[in-house]
Amino acid sequence: MSDAEDLVHDNLVSLQSHVLSEEARHPNAQGDLSWIISAISLAGKTIANKVRRARLDDVLGAHGTENVQGEEQLRMDVIANEIIMRCLGDRASIAVLASEEDEEPTILRRSGEGGKYCVLFDPLDGSSNLDSAVGVGTIFSVTRNDPDEPDGERTVCRPGTEQVAAGYILYGSSTIMCLTTGNGVDMFVLDQAIGSFLRVRTSYRMPDAGAIYSVNEANASSFPEGYQRYLENAHASGYSSRYIGSMVADVHRTLIRGGVFLYPPTGKNPTGKLRLLYEANPMAMLIEQAGGLAYSGAGRTLEIHPERLHQRIPVVLGSKAEVERVRSFL
Ligand code: AHM
Ligand code: MG
Fold it and tell me: Of all atoms in ligand 1, which is nearest to the CA of residue 127?
């Protein structure tokens, strides 16, 4: 590599300049998506700071309420949800916000008032791990608003193929954002000293294969038989098992190292535990954009037509070869 090439290779690119240059490739773009991603980045930085200080600020533990799915809300779930609502609430192009923590979507503005996009999010996925300082994350998905659909729930219940952007922010040993706007996957690391997400990978491709499976194996006896046979085969084939119990952290490892992440139907959650709109769809878009595959029971996750806002589905996603292998047992 020449000195000049070295310089180009080492250039620092912030998330903001990355998004602006992506946008410049689309002559008709009006900058709305850039404003939304910048709000998500602000929310991510604010939540990262709260997560780091949670023990010191004494905000771990239960909030004393349940969400619409009957799950106990933690104080940090509520704080992260509020941060996202406050960071995204005033962005002029957002029509609807839908959170895993809220019963109903929030309609901010109609399309006649400039509402072009909907943002769906899980504010703090894996939050039950926070008291043990394990990585947690925010997952988000951006879709277009339908000017002819007045109902908030029906507006956001669209198949994942219609997402225009998706990603997550992992609050781990470093704070990492993985983002796709449908043109590959880019990764950014938060440089806390300057308060900016800096690009570390562009057009990232995940490994095509990997002998690692990631699943809560304590539930294995109630998995459908095909999953059980896959696991028996993986045991016999010298696989490694890795399971953090935070989807963002488990999916991030799968993107980096390869292998497969699974949340099959269980006795307790017969249709799976993870939510289609807030968890499975954005992760499926990222994984596919990185060259992997994502399936949910019968078919491709992104092609499922959602029936309900908080619908749960089985999740199988990861390296192409490994997802095909799981599917051959199902
Ligand atoms: P949450 O959105 O309420 O935090 O639940 C989702 C989390 C995922 O991060 C993780 O993959 C899964 O639940 C772990 O579930 P389990 O504890 O059953 O293995
Ligand atoms: Mg979640």
Answer: 4
